[in-house]
Write the C-alpha cells for this entry.
Amino acid sequence: MEKMDNVIILNHPLLQHKISMLRDKNTGTNEFRKLVDEIAMLEGFIALEDLPLEDVEVETPIEKCMTPKIAGRKLAVVPILRAGLGMVSGILALVPTAKVGHIGLYRDEVTHEPHEYYCKLPSPIEERTIVVVDPMLATGGSAVDAVSMIKEHGGVNIKFMCIIAAPEGVKRLHEAHPDVQVYIGHLDRELNENAYICPGLGDAGDRIFGTK
Ligand code: PRP
Ligand code: URA
C-alpha cells in the first residue's frame, strides 16, 4: 500500500504479539476481550500523544510547582457498535474523564454497506479530540459513515483507531476523510468475496460478545 499522510501503521512488537493471539481461532471470548482491551490501551498511548495539556499548581513534599495535566473536557471516545465497545475501556484506563459517544452501524450481509441505527454524541463536540474506535476496518464503509456523522454534529479533530485493517478500507477512509488521523495495529493482505479481512480474525463483534 502506498504511504499516505495521516495513516499510521503501529508496528510495536507488543501489539504484533497480542494481535497474533487475537487471530487464533482457539482464543476464547474471555481472553479475546482482554486482548482487545490491552491493544486499545497500547494503541491509545500512541494515538493520544498530542492531547493538549495545561499547567496546574501542585504542592510536592518539597515545594509548590506548576506542572502539566491533561486539559479538561478534551477527549471523547466514540465506539462503532458493536465491536468498537470492546476498545472503550482501554482508552478510559488512560483518560478516565473522557466522554463516550456511541454510533450504531451494521453491515448489510449482501451489499456490505453500513446501515445506521443509533447515534448519541457528547455535546459540545467541536472542541474535543474525538477518537473513533472499531477493531476492524474492512471495506471502510462503516468508518467513513461514522466520521461523516461526527462531522455533521460539528466534530473537527477526529482520529480513527482500529486493530486490523484491509488496504481497501484504508484507501476509502483516507480518500473520504483525509484530515482524519488513522491508527492501525496491523495492515492485512486483502478482503475476501464476503468482505472479510484476510487473514483477519473473523467477526470481531461475535468474538467479543460470544454470539453466533
Ligand atoms: C464490523 C466491524 C466494523 C465493520 C467493518 O461490524 O466491527 O464496524 O464490520 O466493516 P466495513 O469496514 O466493511 O464497514 P459489523 O457490521 O459486523 O457489526 P457488529 O460489530 O455489530 O458485529
Ligand atoms: N467485520 C469483521 O468483524 N471482520 C471482518 O473481517 C470484516 C468486517
Summary: The chain has a mean pLDDT of 96. Residues 80-83, 105-107, 112, 114, 134-143, 169, 195, 203-205 surround PRP (ligand 1) (CB under 6 Å).
